[in-house]
What we know:
The structure is a homodimer. By secondary structure, chain A is mainly alpha-helical. Chain A has 2 domains: 2-170, Ribonuclease III domain (Ribonuclease iii, N-terminal Endonuclease Domain, Chain A), CATH 1.10.1520.10; 175-239, Double Stranded RNA Binding Domain. The first copy, chain A, is built from 11 helices and 3 strands. Chain A has helices spanning 2-13, 18-28, 35-41, 61-82, 88-99, 101-110, 113-120, 127-162, 165-170, 175-185, 225-239, and strands spanning 190-200, 203-212, 215-222. In chain A, strands 1-2-3 form a 3-stranded antiparallel beta sheet. In chain A, helix 4 packs parallel to helix 8, helix 6 crosses helix 8 and helix 10 crosses helix 11. The first copy, chain A, is elongated. The interface between A and B is medium-sized, with 27 and 27 residues.
Amino acid sequence: MILKSYKRFYNYFLSKDKALTRKLVPIIGFVPANINLFKLAFSHRSGSQEDNQPTALRNNERLEYLGDAILGTIVAEYLFKKYPHAQEGFLTKMRSKIVKRTTLNDIGEKMELDLLLSELNHTRLSRSMLGNAVEALVGAIYLEKGYAATRRYVIKYILRRFLDIHSLEKYDDNYKSQLLEWCQKNGKSVEFKLLAKYKLHKRDRFKVAVLINGEKKAVADDFNKKSAEQLAAEKSLKKLGISSNNP
Amino acid sequence: MILKSYKRFYNYFLSKDKALTRKLVPIIGFVPANINLFKLAFSHRSGSQEDNQPTALRNNERLEYLGDAILGTIVAEYLFKKYPHAQEGFLTKMRSKIVKRTTLNDIGEKMELDLLLSELNHTRLSRSMLGNAVEALVGAIYLEKGYAATRRYVIKYILRRFLDIHSLEKYDDNYKSQLLEWCQKNGKSVEFKLLAKYKLHKRDRFKVAVLINGEKKAVADDFNKKSAEQLAAEKSLKKLGISSNNP
Lengths: 247, 247
């Protein structure tokens, strides 16, 4: 306890990492005792610098694996208690809306993790690095503070601050059904047409077009037909200028 | 605290559920204070009896949802610490071998949850009810005892007691590649042939045969081609009497 307090004092006032420590404090809400853990949380595979460590310990992938599980459990419990009468199906769907890649990337952006990421990596940032860093950060906080404190952190600093649970409830990520509904309401015909099936990296890939009143509206491809259709439907909704019911 | 102790005393010595309580103790390692939570953990949707509750609170599906997340996290952390130098990919694979349906069903059987399940449900037991009950039980323990105690429980009463981690390391659940390897070694030709694609409950279903030296060895079907092939390969390995490297 005293050792940890000393380490926190050292990191904040004396360490060569004191600038980094001070940037972390508003994001995580406390002064970290083990600053290396948090440096690791922001180290992308491609950008890691120190070569005297085994590969697995030089980047944030292990922390991301741990944090992914812990974040999933905290969200699962939060929803379980927030919706005491909801059925399992609703809870599962809500959970996957919160922990899915695109939501976590958005959260990482709002937390301004890009600043820390670009400071600690010498590589071009991609959007998915943001969501991965959110998970790795949760993993690091868990290792330093345990489950109860991490749960308080996630609820206060992530869920309450950056998520609008009520609009997520209404959020419909089935773009295909949204498009079908809109077309029916507006008396238009709609067709999803498989344009091509080909191989990419030895895997099947599907190219799908959306035809509205027989006219090509959007094209998309993906590794399975369903998600290619979803992508094409999403593009079509955008082109039609339909503000979907999403936040 | 005193209230909980009293409830435990009551459940063990006085309650009408004292027989059930005493059967639970060797499985969970403590006397439950909230016996209803544990009765719920073993109540399958089809078999639930009490009708004065909303549907979602009458069966174990909500507890299963919660327990699934908690079990996943405990296993994730256990592996994270057990393999301090392993890469994320290895950890993820190991975790999914442990928390996958068939492993959990086996664990539920070894825990003899079938006895409790058949006592609390008036329905025929299926194997998947065993794995679901393991998850729901973990959810119930979490609600009664919190994260740290649940982690101790899972490690001591489930992982150490019923899993052989080292044989899981070597365990290869890719039956197709095992079969291909065996055939190549033994100079036999092997072919996976799609026999039929049809609709079941509005979903595509695939029927696949394994031909060895042109002769039909096994047939299997599933909702996607890959798992139909895996199933057919598994059956073929069994028929050929090849002891796979699995526990």
